[in-house]
Amino acid sequence: MFELDSPFKALSAQCQEWGHDFRAHALELDRDPEAIRRYFDLPAVRFLATMGIPEEYGNRPEPIGGHRFHGDRALERVVIMEELACADAGMLVASPGPLLAGVLLEVLGDRRQKEWFYGRMLADPLWTFFALTEPDRGSDASGMRTALTPGPDGTGLRLTGAKRYVGNACRAQLGVVFARTGPGPLGVNAVLTETAVPGYSAAPLPMIGLRGARLSTIEFDGVEIAEDRVLGRHLPRTRRGTWAFVQTFNRLRPGVAAIALGVARAAHTYVLTHRRSLRPAERERLDGIGRRIAATRRLIHAAAAAVDADGGNGYLASAAKARASRLAEEVTLEACTFFGPGARLDHPLLDKLARDARSMEFIEGTTSMQKLNLFQGLVSGRLERAGSPAAG
Ligand SMILES: Cc1cc2nc3c(=O)[nH]c(=O)nc-3n(C[C@H](O)[C@H](O)[C@H](O)COP(=O)(O)OP(=O)(O)OC[C@H]3O[C@@H](n4cnc5c(N)ncnc54)[C@H](O)[C@@H]3O)c2cc1C
After folding, report:
1. 111, 167, 166, 125: which is closest to 144 by C-alpha?
2. What residues contact 288, with CB distance under 8 A and at least 6 apart?
3. Average pLDDT, whole number, for the chain?
4. Is the N end or the C end of the chain the one with fewer CB atoms within 10 Å?
């Protein structure tokens, strides 16, 4: 069984303490996703604003339990995300910072690109975005049509196309965009872009849950991209396209699972706090939920450790993400049953948790996509089947 050591326990305790601020503003942010602009001084928001920036690029977060956590490892991120999402997933995803874009940059960026991007993030809290999904081509990323083509006068490049469901894109200052330069898995590239440039426009989408994420549509109408903003130019071609994206998603996936786990835990804790007396059958049901939460946490931690050891090994992470998103949906709905038929009207936080949980299914790939990945891990033998002789 995977056990966290004491620095990680200190990190978890610190995030739990920071989480009180997140919970205090959860419902306000649900009503107005722009409320986050008033809370840039909260310690958790300040931490997230630079989370993921490695020490060598000048990130010096305050020590926690005698350690500096840069959030550049999957295991650190899952501990942070579970606690902060348990406080409020909306505040977590609304906070500025390099998060998804930073992980891609870590995999694909060269030294100068990282210095530029991280330097901007260290100077000011900025929102970033990570634009992959396109209208009508969500799960099928290989069908993307956004194009990166040479500029009309032969200088630089132009970005043309549309993206959809991209977190924070309507308020971000910087982002990464996936685009095609040619057919096939090697014809996909990622570029860095700023948003205050001609040809870029983004608009928020109405959302039922996780409103802090500010999902947006983006239009790129011939946005100029300098050649040195193309990620992975220093790498062999086979390491730039689909390979890099698989590595990036593998690293992100345990964190998404941890957000779902945090939402499930928030609902479980809500029942424990607000239903002081429970009938034996209710107590049994609640204990069962607690055991499922603990088991999913163990799976997420093992998945994060596997990805940290080998960025190509995201199979367990797929199992963790699929299990955690289902847990979030089931637990938030079951929590409502402890408060009778009017639960979602009488308990606005529970209602919000149930709405937030719904989005977990879609972030970073649906359950069907995770199952396909898991299946590939099993048939290729890279993931051992529990109980098989090889698994011990
Ligand atoms: C809160 C939130 C944040 C997000 N943030 C971002 C972001 O920052 N950047 C970004 O680029 N995207 C983001 N997304 C988009 C997300 O990645 C997509 O929603 C997801 O990839 C699914 O795409 P889709 O919604 O178009 O569904 P579809 O791909 O249309 O899928 C619909 C259904 O069909 C199933 N399905 C599709 N293909 C197959 C198949 N081959 N086999 C079996 N079943 C299949 C799916 O499992 C699903 O149940 C976000 C989404 C949400 C909800």
Report:
1. 166
2. none
3. 94
4. N
d(CA 264, CA 262): 5
In short, whether 210's Cβ falls inside 6 Å of ligand 1 is: yes
Query: For residue 390, is pLDDT > 50?
Result: no
Q: Which residue is closest in CA terms to ligand 1's atom 26?
A: 138
Q: Are strands 157-166 and 188-194 parallel, antiparallel or unpaired?
A: unpaired
Do 146 and 114 form a contact (C-beta atoms < 8 A)?
no
pLDDT at 387: 57
pLDDT band at 211 (very low <50, low <70, confident <90, very high): very high
At 268, the amino acid letter reads: H
Single-letter code of the amino acid located at 24: A
- The answer to whether the CB of 166 is under 6 A from ligand 1 is yes
Euclidean distance between CA atoms 277 and 211, whole angstroms: 33
Q: Would you say the CB of residue 143 lies under 6 angstroms from ligand 1?
A: no
Nearest 5°: CA angle at 19, between 338 and 11? 115
Dihedral, 276, 329, 305, 104 alpha carbons, nearest 10: -130
Query: Using the 8-state DSSP alphabet, how is residue 39 labeled?
Result: G
Q: What is the pTM of this model?
A: 0.96
Q: How far from each other are the two terminal CA atoms of the chain, in whole angstroms?
A: 13
Residues forming a β-bridge with 160: 147, 221
Using CA atoms, how far apart are residues 147 and 368, in angstroms rounded to an integer? 27
Which secondary-structure segment (H or E) carries 178?
strand 174-180
6 pLDDT tier (thresholds 50, 70, 90): confident
Task: For residues 176 and 260, give the distance between their C-alpha atoms in angstroms, rounded to a whole number.
Answer: 24
Pairing of strands 128-131, 188-194: unpaired
Residues β-bridged to residue 159: 148, 223
Pocket test for ligand 1, best of 362, 369, 372, 376 (most atoms within 8 A of CB): 362
Residue ranges and CATH numbers for the domains of the chain are: 6-123 (1.10.540.10), 128-235 (2.40.110.10), 242-383 (1.20.140.10)
Does the CB atom of residue 365 touch ligand 1 within 6 A? yes
Indicate the length of the chain as a whole number: 392
Residue 131 in contact with ligand 1 by CB distance below 6 A = yes
Each residue of 373-384: pLDDT tens digit? 999 999 998 887
Nearest-10 Cα torsion for 274, 278, 281, 286: 30
